[in-house]
Amino acid sequence: MQANIRSVSSGSEELHWDAELDHVPEFAVETDTGNRYSVHCIGPAAGVPTDWEVRAPGGALIGRVSRVAMTSGFSSSYRYKKAGALFSGGSQGTLRNAVQSLLE
Description:
mainly beta, globular, 8 strands, 8-stranded antiparallel beta sheet
């Protein structure tokens, strides 16, 4: 079952909007079930594509998110894929929602 993100933080600062996440090299998310995950940018923080890894507290890779397109109006879409999955995954309109799609 997919969990919902309750909070997003970078260091001691709580972040509220997806636009803030695109340029944050590392942030943490906490779900409504109390699980915490770390998200690390593994590509440049500007431009296309940019990739993020989502990891569990022990460091296990949960999945990856990639920015796949910037459209007019400066909005992007994000493709997510669970670790070890060959074909499953999907896309979301925001980085926050793509990360959330990977969480349990």
